[in-house]
Specification:
With about 280 residues, this protein is of the alpha/beta class. It has eight helices and 15 strands. The structure holds magnesium ion (MG).
């Protein structure tokens, strides 16, 4: 066999391995608290908000604060000695609106905003590029019925939940606009498009918290429901944790699944009961 054909075989094999490692796996195992160690001090819990703690509504602003949920999160936070984080696409201000007075670590805007539970450290990613593209997208979609554009400073969300419009052409144009700026990336979520800084995602947010107290040296659990949570699943998998996708999805990097929001609340209940 010639050196050239051997090189080709090696190249094809490397490509095969690359695909195996990077392509999302089938989600197959249901998640249960029985999988976790008995000692709470060994685990850190990270939760997405919409579609995980709350059912998805037609508009994010329709979600209201829930005292029972706040109380449940407060108790879990205490049980985990503070190792609880909410990792959301919402802004920190909006997370404060929903989870007021809870001393919980927050990552807002898909990791572009970070704040520790004691509100001592707060980080905000550069927002200049988002402002520029937001203006162009607002011009493009001006007059398109029932499409909500939410400019969250460090990221931009285009909501299609109430729209019957054919998204293909809009998706293509926004993708082209985003591609022109190498510092930005586009995520397709449930009925939404997210334009966000390439440097920050839910995975980088979890990595940041895992380097700080009280998360450090624990094994992370991350529960989320959407494409925007896949970076978080990847990070958690690399750290030997438990990645859990909510809903019925054929392909995900998550190793476990929960069928719906109700089952997430059931897991939280069991977490409190058993530990
Ligand atoms: Mg979600």
């Amino acid at each position: 066999m010639s050196a050239r054909s051997t090189a080709c075989i090696h190249k094809a094999y490397r490509l095969h391995l690359f695909k195996q490692i990077n392509e999302p796996l089938n989600v197959s195992s249901p998640f249960s608290v029985n999988l976790l160690p008995k000692d709470c001090q060994q685990v850190a819990l990270f939760l997405d908000v919409d579609g995980t703690l709350y059912e998805i509504e037609n508009s994010p602003s329709l979600i209201k604060p829930c005292f029972r949920l706040q109380k449940k999160l407060h108790t879990i936070r205490n049980r985990l000695q503070g190792a609880l984080g909410l990792i959301s696409g919402r802004t920190l201000d909006d997370l404060d609106r929903l989870f007021d007075k809870n001393k919980i670590s927050f990552a807002g805007n898909h990791g572009a905003q970070l704040r520790d539970a004691l509100r001592i450290k707060e980080y905000q990613a550069n927002t200049g590029n988002i402002k520029r593209i937001a203006h162009k997208i607002e011009e493009l979609l001006n007059g398109k019925k029932n499409i909500e554009i939410e400019n969250k400073g460090s990221s931009l969300t285009i909501h299609f939940r109430n729209s019957t419009i054919d998204r293909k052409e809009i998706d293509r144009i926004i993708m082209e606009l985003t591609k022109r700026d190498r510092s930005l990336t586009l995520l397709k979520g449930k009925e939404v498009l997210e334009v966000k800084p390439l440097s920050h995602n839910k995975g980088t947010a979890i990595s940041y918290f895992m380097r700080t107290k009280p998360f450090i040296k624990r094994r992370p659990i991350f529960i989320g429901d959407d494409e925007t949570d896949e970076d978080g699943f990847e990070t958690v998998n690399k750290k030997g944790g438990w990645s859990v996708r909510v809903g019925n999805h054929k392909r995900s990097k998550a190793n476990f699944f929960l069928p719906n929001v109700k089952s997430v609340h059931e897991v939280m209940k069991q977490l409190l009961k058993s530990r």
